[in-house]
Amino acid sequence: MPRLRLLFLSKRHPQQRDLIERPYGRFHYLPAALAAFGHEVQVHLCSHTHLPSTQRRFAGVEWTSDDVRTLGPRRIYRKFDQDARAFQPDWVIGVSDTYYGWLAQKLARSTGARLAIDAYDNYEAYMPWNLPLHALWRRSIRAADLVTAAGPQLAQRLQSLRPTGHPVEMLPMAADPEFVPLDKVACRKTLGLPIDASLIGYIGSWSQSRGTEVLLEAFRQARLAKPGLRLVLSGSPPQHALNEPGVIGTGYVADAQLPRLINALDISCVITADTSFGRYSYPAKLCEAMACEVPVIATATEPVRWMLAESREHLVVPDSSEALSKGILEMLARPSADYGDRLTWQMQGEKLESLLNGLR
Q: What does the pLDDT look like over 23-37, one tens digit per residue?
């Protein structure tokens, strides 16, 4: 295949991860895969926390980061435009949220490059009040030569915004390569977790809109039948959750320890809600648990049902503590999981490469 010059645009901190300090997910592994295939790849990142500008090369990719509060909106846009003109990309690819679809469209027009946009969530659900930004996002979706989405529900939504042109393609989520099956007992010893207890866990943000209070009530109900059950919570859940009898709070777990935390569990709980966000959300934590071959209980939003191939033993109706409690107890009685072959970021990089070359 011909060698391409590819310019990715992204926020620096998607999903609370710093892409310079903590490479993660599709934002890192798709550019890195394309660089490994021999393409020339640059990623321009934008932060808004008064960080200094920085430039590094790793994973075969040139990473540049600038801060909108440090430089100011006009100056940072001029820098992005000058850097893009100097690079002369074949494709400008906007990722991570609505702002970068708009910015990618402007830089593609400025440089004469083709425009691609990748979406992993329904970004319009983040700030529903920001109608001018949504209008710019929709304009960029219509203008793009290629649009990719993390799953079929999101692809259908984006397709409705672009009635003509190349159909929206799917680039599903995958687990990062460090998420592999590990010995459960060894992981528990490393993390200081009870060796012999039944451990279920939730790794993710805690909010009523995600249905996490339902998880807490389901845990209370499940403990009536299985008093030795423990619920492991990472990050910073509210104090009332940490005070619940049987809950173990780990605090923030270092990136390198996250595969061990997932492998330490008997069940990983993946909680989403049937909202404008949840109906288009493809949880990375679900991919990670599946890659570790850890049994999963998940609320059955359409994207999660698709990710789990409609496997009923893993799915419970959203917003029902009774259904979730029942699913947890049933899964503990058959603690094994076979998810079949899993997608990798390298496979997704190969698909993206094929799409970019096919539409060149």
A: 999 999 999 999 999
Query: Structural domain of residue 208, as residue ranges?
Result: 184-332
Same structural domain, 169 and 224: no
Per-residue pLDDT band at 208 (split at 50, 70, 90): low
Answer whether 12's CB lies under 8 Å from 47's CB. yes
DSSP state of 12: S
Q: Are residues 22 and 165 in the same domain?
A: yes
What percent of the chain stands above pLDDT 90?
89
Q: Which two tokens stand for residue 351?
A: 């698909």
Does any domain span residue 25?
Answer: yes
Distances in Å between the Cα of 289 and the Cα atoms of 236, 243, 261 are 20, 26, 10
| Mode of pairing for the β-strands spanning 61-67 and 54-58 | antiparallel
Q: Where are the alpha helices (DSSP H) in the chain?
A: 25-36, 68-71, 73-87, 98-111, 131-143, 152-159, 184-191, 212-225, 239-242, 258-263, 284-291, 302-307, 321-332, 345-358
CA–CA dist 343, 176 (Å, integer)? 10
Note the pTM of the prediction, 2 decimals: 0.94
- Closest of 174, 160, 156, 167 to residue 302, by C-alpha: 156
Question: How high is the mean pLDDT of the chain?
Answer: 95
Token code pair at residue 139: 């304009």
